[in-house]
Every structure is written in C-alpha cells, then in structure tokens.
Amino acid sequence: MYDVLIIGAGVTGASIARELSRYDLKVCILDKNNDVADATTKANSAIIHAGYDAKPGTLKAKFNALGAPMFDQICKELDVPFKRIGSLVIAFSEEEMKTLESLYEQGIKNGIENIHILDKAKTMELEPNLIDSAQGALHAPDGGIICPFELTVALTENAVENGVDLFLNQQVIDIEKNEKEFKVITQKEKFTAKYVVNCAGVFADTIYHMVTPTDFHITPRKGQYFVLDKEAGNFANTVIFQCPTPQSKGVLVTPTVHGNLLVGPDAEDLNDKTDLDNTRERLNFVRENAKKTSENIPFHLTINIFAGLRAVPDTGDFIIGESEKVKGFINVAGIESPGLSSAPAIGNYVKDLLLDKWEGLKEKENFNPYRRKVVRFNELTPQEITDLVKKNPSYGRIVCRCELVTEGEIIDVIHRKAGATSLDAIKRRVRAGMGRCQGGFCGPRVMEILSRELNMEMHEVVKDSPESKILTGKTKCSEEEH
Ligand SMILES: Cc1cc2nc3c(=O)[nH]c(=O)nc-3n(C[C@H](O)[C@H](O)[C@H](O)COP(=O)(O)OP(=O)(O)OC[C@H]3O[C@@H](n4cnc5c(N)ncnc54)[C@H](O)[C@@H]3O)c2cc1C
C-alpha cells in the first residue's frame, strides 16, 4: 500500500512528488498519458510570473509570490534552463496607464516589490520593436522564462531517483474508499493508498466526482500559439504583455528560454476537455491582436503552432486542500495560470499538509536534491566537445541538425529514470525535432535509436500516445511478416 498516491504527472503532481520524496514515505504518481508533462504543462506561455497579476488574498497570489523566487534554486539543483529576463505590461492609451497603476498597487499588496512603472522612452529603450503608440509599461525585472516540460521531466526524474514510483499509461477510472484506505482503479490495475492527491488538471473535477459529488467544475479554456524560428528570437528582449482582461493575460510576445519567439495565446471556453486543435480563425485573432504590440512581428518565420487548455475552476481560485467530505483526499485543482509559477510553492504546501498526518517524520539523510547534469552539445566549447567525444563517440554523431542534438544526448534521456519512450518524449527532453525542420530529417534516425535502445521493432515506436503509430509495418513483405 502507498502512503500517498498522486494522480497526474504535470508540473503540479511532479512538484508535490519531489517534495514528498525527501521523506521516508511510499509515494507513487499515476498518469494516463505515455509521458510526464504531456497535458497542460507542455502547452503554455512558459512564463514565471513576477506575481502582480493575481487578486490579493487569493491562493493564486499567495502561491505565485512564494513560488516565483524558488525557481533559481530548483533549476540549479535540477539543471533546467531558466532566465529572469523581466516582463513588461504595455499601456497603449492613457486609460491603460491607469490599469498599470492598479496592477502596480496589486503587486505591492501581493508582496512583489521589484516592479516599476516606466515612461515611453524607457519602455522603447527596452523593446525597440514596440509599436509607436506604446505609452509606458509596468516593468517586473524578476519575471522569467523556463522550459516547462524539461522542468517537469527533471522534477519527476529526481523524485524517482529518491524513491517515488512512476506509472504511466494508467488512466484512473474509479476510486473506492473504505475506513482504512483508498482503492484507485485504472484500466490496468488497482492501487491502494492512505492518501490520494488529485492533480489531474482539466480532469480534476472528474476525478473528485469518483469519490463524492463534486462541488467544483472545471472549464477547459483553450489558448493557441505561434512558435517562430530562432532567427526571430531577438525580436523581443523581455516578456511583453498587453493589459490583462478578465479571461486572460492577453496576447504576449516573448523569447523562449531556448531562443525562439512565442506569440499567443487567445482564450476560448470549450466543453470538450480533449480539444487541442488549432484553428485558422483563432490563430488569425492572435496574429491581429499581437499587431497591437508590434506591427512587424515576423510571422513568416513561424515553424509551429500549438494549443493548451487552462483548467478554469468555477470557484475563481486554485482549489488546494483536503476534502471536507472525503478525509484523506487532497484536491490540487483549478491550477490555471499562474500554476507553473506557483508549482514549487504548491509542492511545498501540500507536502507540509501531508507531513502533519505522520508524527515525527524526518527528512531522509540520503535525499539527493541534485539531478545528474545534462549534456547540451550546442553549449559546449570545442575543447569540451573533443574531450567528450573521446570518452563517448556517440556525442560526436549529430542527429538533429537544426538544434545540434547528438546521439549521445538521446541515448542518455532514454535511459534516465522517467526516461523517454516516444519521439515526442525525446523532443521534449533534448529538442531533437524542435527546430526549423520540425523533425523532418532527424525523426527516422531518432526512431532507429529508440528502437535499438528499447529493444523494440521500428513499427512499435510511437510519436506520443501508444496509439500514435508512425509506421504500420515493413514494405514489400508478406501478410504474415507484417
Ligand atoms: C494557454 C496557457 C498559458 C499558460 N501560461 C502560463 C504561464 O505563462 N505561466 C504560468 O505560471 N502558468 C501558465 N499556465 C498555467 C500552467 O500551464 C498550468 O497551471 C500548469 O501546467 C498545470 O499543471 P498541472 O500539473 O496542474 O496540470 P496538467 O499539466 O494538465 O497535468 C495533469 C495530469 O493529469 C493527468 N490525468 C488527467 N486525468 C487522469 C486520469 N483519469 N488518470 C490518470 N491521469 C490523469 C493528465 O494526463 C496530466 O498529465 C498556462 C496555461 C495555459 C493553458
């Protein structure tokens, strides 16, 4: 029996798992998908918000303010790329300058001190590509950019290294509770646990409904994006927001931590929690709205588009805590933006909440907060490359030419804990396929490496989910050989 069973291996579940892995507890994470970070956590703006945006007194404001400063330490321990490039909220009219003042005051109330209102000249100095109608900005120098899937992979890998069990492709379909334990039933197995933590993103209400009629409802709110080639990466120096609306923080323009340019999202409420389609109409909306920030965004350098689903709760705030109706069941639900920025603080809080259930539990002496360093070939000096290739020639074979990713890096992430088993899992970990050709050249080579390292047939290698077959069988062979 597990002490704690976490449903959902997004950034929220992974942060909680890593915090719990510091203690002598039997912990597991279940996810219905074929990889960690394979839902909302893989498709968002990837901003670590400074913390002025959430309404004072809310859990969003509290956990954003506590979480954002924790990223420097966590990213150092886990070797995850993170940059505090600062953010700007731009005012395009005198009216919006007043909005900036309210945002500033809100930030101060939230305990965010390093924020300033800039005049037009200072704003244009920071962002020369802004439209001329920009009047000024709210500047938050501590705002940051991160790679959310690398973060979540790293959090999970470190949690597993410290004793947590990870089960993928396990969709929770029912939960039973008796006096002593929960029985969590997936399409494959039954797990028992003393405590259950519900981090199921847009499906958190469905999961809660398995133990009691829910008293909250989650609406999926879709946001669509353009990803531009690295040639456009220097178009913006900071995260550039427009003034927020009640639905979202508006269309932003930002460099990514890996040097691309990201433009989006819109906000569209849906009924379908699986609808991740990009649509011409909404992408046009994003493009038109982004023109308010700058008329010259080089959209012709677009290399990809994607969509993510915000888990919007009808309570208006994060729902974090033990259910009053079902003792031992902890909801961490409605984790919409700024959920990524809040994740480390939520992890810490839920860990404390659970530790209260055990008396005298001490941190394990052998807990290791560090993840084995990742080789990033494209950041190495010529001498470092020579030394590395001498030791391991697979680091001398470039597989992804756009992003300069070597065979050695791919082999490494396949064999790490919580390792990659699909084409997209490799892409999320080492960026093979993230570049200009989007895997057109390296895809088949990555498949060969996966097939060899995981000892499976080429046609068994999938793009992402177990159903996402790429090959159906060998050509020019008989029916039986297929
Ligand atoms: C458009 C958009 C922009 C955003 N921008 C930002 C931003 O810039 N900064 C920021 O701080 N936040 C941002 N957010 C919010 C942030 O992305 C989320 O708060 C965060 O990713 C939520 O993580 P999670 O782990 O709670 O949910 P998810 O990542 O959705 O994880 C939930 C997991 O539960 C699993 N699951 C669901 N049902 C079951 C089941 N029955 N059985 C087993 N597993 C199950 C899923 O497979 C999934 O892996 C944005 C969100 C969106 C959509």
Overview of this structure, please?
This protein is α+β, with helices and mostly antiparallel strands. It has 3 domains: 2-41 and 148-217 and 315-355, FAD/NAD(P)-binding domain (3-Layer(bba) Sandwich), CATH 3.50.50; 83-145 and 219-312, D-Amino Acid Oxidase, Chain A, domain 2, CATH 3.30.9.10; 377-460, Orthogonal Bundle (Arc Repressor Mutant, subunit A). The chain has 13 helices and 22 strands. Strands 1, 2, 9, 10, 11, 12, 19 and 20 form an 8-stranded mixed sheet that branches. The longest helix is centred in the C-terminal third of the chain and has 17 residues, at 339-355. The protein starts with a strand and ends in a 29-residue tail after the last helix. The mean pLDDT is 96. The structure holds flavin-adenine dinucleotide (FAD). Residues 7-13, 30-33, 38-41, 44-47, 49, 171-172, 199-201, 203, 207, 223, 265, 308-310, 335-341 line the site of flavin-adenine dinucleotide (FAD). Flavin-adenine dinucleotide binds at residues 7-13, 30-33, 38-41, 44-47, 49, 171-172, 199-201, 203, 207, 223, 265, 308-310, 335-341.
